[in-house]
Amino acid sequence: MNKNTSTDLNLVPFVSVDNMMKIILSVGVENMLVGIAEYLEDDFKRWELFDKTPRVASHSNEGVIELMPTSDGQVYGFKYVNGHPMNTKSGLQTVTAFGVLSDVNTGYPILLSEMTILTALRTAATSAMAAKYLMPKGSKCMAMIGNGAQSEFQALAFKAICGITELRLYDIDAQATEKCMKNLQGLGINIVKCDSEQTAVEGADIITTVTADKQCATILTDNMVGSGVHINAIGGDCPGKTELHKDILLRSKIFVEYPPQTRIEGEIQQLDDDHPVTELWQVMTGAAEGRTDEKQITLFDSVGFAIEDFSALRYIRDQLETTGQFQNLDMLADPDDPRDLFGMVLRAKGATSDKGE
Ligand code: NAD
């Protein structure tokens, strides 16, 4: 097994896409969603000690590229992630990502990982963790509008963490719904394919919106949302990119990750800057109330925050020893004399000449 040791800190454990898939298959996708949710819960409960900043975004007409950093004082982490809704038309994904954890004491990276798949897992685990605190008691049925890359992960997280057994699917692209149904076949969820957003939300306790469009879209209008529903709004995560009609927001109790970021990127960019919101971590520590009555509409206005990526990377790092699914990358220069970086290069030239190259 490849194993990093204290004597080869220049070798950074790297989790490739192939490694990640093997970790998921060996741990089991639902176990992994539950495991990541536990790490998320631990980190949300110590929210105050983290360095926090809205993510650093570089916008273009086609999409956005973002850096998402945080630190708990001992470990530093960041994710590189893009969001390009038109990518799927040319066979590329809307969201791709990779991430790093580093030791704060030395500044040396201790993990480099693919995060395209891991982002889908952490987003789904975060959604289900939020719903566990906010959904109406005994929820069994979820509508999911948008059946793309994130959708199966969302479905399985809600099954494993919230006990959802019925899924009502709708996507403007029927092929996306077919794909989602096929992938979830035999996994213990009763699936209904719907022909409109309106039909999809009928009888649902939870509504997940997870569409991709770089505009202020109206996936849900006010009349579609009955009292007592929990809304898990995932796809509105950029300035100028929302999914819900403003009137729904005005009827809902709104929960967010990190207000300074969500006010720029979330559904609440449609509201005044002082519109009241509750931070999810406070509900989890008991510092704030969650749902206060059965008829209330609760809304998790998710945009994805750096601490969630940090938790997911922490989880992956803790799986390396048992799964052995990583490679050591020769990523950090390691001269014998730390100040003789140039000499190391010269010696490499000598070694190359010795080989007659
Ligand atoms: P995707 O492109 O794979 O899937 C999006 C799906 O939405 C597609 O199947 C598309 O046909 C469908 N869609 C678009 N407009 C629709 C509409 N009006 N009605 C119904 N369906 C519609 O994208 P993805 O990777 O699944 O991501 C979905 C969204 O989630 C993106 O906007 C992404 O930025 C966002 N996201 C948010 C977080 C978070 O933490 N909040 C994390 C990851 C992704």
Could you describe the 3D structure shown?
- The protein has 357 residues and is an alpha/beta fold.
- It folds into two domains: 11-117 and 308-330, 2-Layer Sandwich (ornithine cyclodeaminase, domain 1); 127-304, Rossmann fold (3-Layer(aba) Sandwich), CATH 3.40.50.
- Helices cover 35% and strands 24% of the residues.
- The protein has helices at residues 17-27, 29-44, 116-134, 151-162, 174-184, 197-201, 246-251, 259-265, 280-285, 306-323, 341-354, and strands at 11-15, 56-59, 64-71, 75-83, 97-103, 109-114, 141-145, 166-170, 190-193, 206-209, 216-220, 230-233, 242-244, 252-256, 278-279, 297-301, 327-330.
- Helix 3 (116-134) packs parallel to helix 4 (151-162).
- Nicotinamide-adenine-dinucleotide is lined by residues 83, 88, 94-95, 119, 123, 145-150, 171-173, 176, 210-213, 217, 219, 234-235, 237, 302-304.
Q: What global shape is seen? A: globular
Mean pLDDT: 95
CATH homolog superfamily of the largest domain: NAD(P)-binding Rossmann-like Domain
- Poorly predicted regions are 1-6
Summarize the biggest pleated sheet.
8 strands, parallel
The helix/strand order is EHHEEEEEHEHEHEHEEEEHEHEHEHEH
CATH fold name of the largest domain, please? Rossmann fold
In short, what is this structure?
The chain has eleven helices and 17 strands.
Helix-strand layout with pairing:
Layout: E1 11-15, H1 17-27, H2 29-44, E2 56-59, E3 64-71, E4 75-83, E5 97-103, E6 109-114, H3 116-134, E7 141-145, H4 151-162, E8 166-170, H5 174-184, E9 190-193, H6 197-201, E10 206-209, E11 216-220, E12 230-233, E13 242-244, H7 246-251, E14 252-256, H8 259-265, E15 278-279, H9 280-285, E16 297-301, H10 306-323, E17 327-330, H11 341-354
Parallel strand pairs: 1-6, 7-8, 7-10, 8-9, 10-12, 11-13, 12-16, 14-15, 14-16
Antiparallel strand pairs: 1-17, 2-3, 3-4, 4-5, 5-6
Helix pairs in contact: 2-3, 2-4, 2-10, 3-4, 3-10
The structure holds nicotinamide-adenine-dinucleotide.
Nicotinamide-adenine-dinucleotide (NAD) binds at residues 83, 88, 94-95, 119, 123, 145-150, 171-173, 176, 210-213, 217, 219, 234-235, 237, 302-304.
